[in-house]
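Give me the fold.
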Amino acid sequence: MEGTEMIDILLVEDNPGDVRLTQEAFKEGRLRNQLHVVMDGEAAMQYLKQQGDYAAAPRPDLILLDLNLPKMNGREVLSAIKHDPDLKRIPVVVLTTSQDETDITESYRQFASSYIVKPVSMEKFIGVVSSFKEYWLSVVKLPNVQE
């Protein structure tokens, strides 16, 4: 983790198994950043707007967003974030099982910062998280989203 700043990451993921897998991969990848989890699109928007149960939630520096979510799908969440003047500076990384070209194209059309297809195996997933860590937390300079 040397050379990287601690950041808050919001994981928007409805599958408890994928949440555990992501948490394990972050642990294995030695990511000591704060990982916050919400399980559906409506909760994601409440979290980001610091409403209801999330009134004291920190503003995330980075969002990991699944596309297939209940209540409000990931495409709708991405669009809402990128059309909100207070939220649009937060980088959103789509992290999903979908390899559909339409999903990829539409995610970038809605200003996703990147699109990552979730590997099935834990070993490959850890490799993806390690690459994620190297790029997003060491190479990239993230905007100050608190301003």
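The radius of gyration is 14 Å.
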